[in-house]
């Protein structure tokens, strides 16, 4: 059993969300971590309640607040699977407080990322579009295959998610696209083909295409296809439980606790770089 003093003191943002609930339940089952506060957006029904009671269970002693700055006091790390605007605002608060920030939020613009990276000069930030071990290993396989095959192999990335997902392509698809582009020694922005509709013309040689499927309760499936005349190679990851993302994020929080300021990703956390 871990000494209570040594347990990482964690704040979860958006505790009523799909990932927020999963994160809180994984933290509460571990003695290496302690949930010290849950935040919600300003004016949320849960603000001011006890987290356990808000979820319909027994009181947990963990406050839910919409005052993010207060929630950070004494915390080692914030785990953030919310929205781009909430994430950028939290990065600034974490930088001021010197609190580590683990970011799973996707749909960030390049301007959002620039603001987050600026905050990483003051605190440790771990950001990844997918926190699972499997996807992070897959990025390395994709880079290796893309480096081995020339542009006769058309690269297409197909992702499927539940009907509630608001951004496309998924953060994972973009990570996989970055890995494929790195393998080919090109910039993803120069070759990405993100929206085909109507008379698109023939496929450009060297393009990396993205397709997004939305429906039902799919947690997250990703295929990276390398398609040439006469053969196709597909690398696939399928998530069947959100706990894979939560476990990765919480590993990142423990890793980031007390670490030097910087912009990190899951390859750093997993020692895969
Ligand atoms: N990197 C990874 O491994 C993964 C990333 N994700 C990403 O995480 C994000 C969230 O996904 P998911 O959990 O499915 O989405 P949900 O919509 O279920 O959860 C998001 C939560 O954030 C809350 N929220 C919004 N603004 C704030 C704020 N200012 N402070 C605190 N909480 C806030 C929302 O509250 P309200 O509903 O009241 O607005 C909601 O409860 C998405 O970007 C998704 O793509 C998801 C899974 C894995
Ligand atoms: O919104 C989700 O659910 C997920 N989002 C992440 C993404 O955009 O890739 C990770 C995972 O696929 C689930």
UniProtKB/TrEMBL annotation:
SUPFAM superfamilies reported in the protein's UniProt record: Glyceraldehyde-3-phosphate dehydrogenase-like, C-terminal domain (SSF55347), NAD(P)-binding Rossmann-fold domains (SSF51735)
Superkingdom, taxonomy of origin: Bacteria
Predominant subcellular localization, coarse grouping: cytoplasm
Entry's Gene Ontology BP terms: diaminopimelate biosynthetic process; lysine biosynthetic process via diaminopimelate
Single GO term (MF): oxidoreductase activity, acting on CH or CH2 groups, NAD or NADP as acceptor
One protein family per Pfam: DapB_C
Top-rank EC class of the record's enzyme: oxidoreductase
Active site: 161, 165
Pathway(s) this gene product operates in, as recorded in its UniProt entry: Amino-acid biosynthesis; L-lysine biosynthesis via DAP pathway; (S)-tetrahydrodipicolinate from L-aspartate: step 4/4
Domain Dihydrodipicolinate reductase N-terminal: 9-131
Domain Dihydrodipicolinate reductase C-terminal: 134-270
Cellular compartment(s): Cytoplasm
Binding site for NAD(+): 14-19, 40, 104-106, 128-131
Classification via InterPro entries: DapB_C (IPR022663), DapB_N (IPR000846), DapB_N_CS (IPR022664), DHDPR_bac (IPR023940), NAD(P)-bd_dom_sf (IPR036291)
Reaction catalysis annotation: (S)-2,3,4,5-tetrahydrodipicolinate + NAD(+) + H2O = (2S,4S)-4-hydroxy-2,3,4,5-tetrahydrodipicolinate + NADH + H(+); (S)-2,3,4,5-tetrahydrodipicolinate + NADP(+) + H2O = (2S,4S)-4-hydroxy-2,3,4,5-tetrahydrodipicolinate + NADPH + H(+)
Subunit: Homotetramer.
Family the entry assigns: Belongs to the DapB family.
NCBIfam families: dapB
Purpose of the protein: Catalyzes the conversion of 4-hydroxy-tetrahydrodipicolinate (HTPA) to tetrahydrodipicolinate.
Name of the protein this chain belongs to: 4-hydroxy-tetrahydrodipicolinate reductase
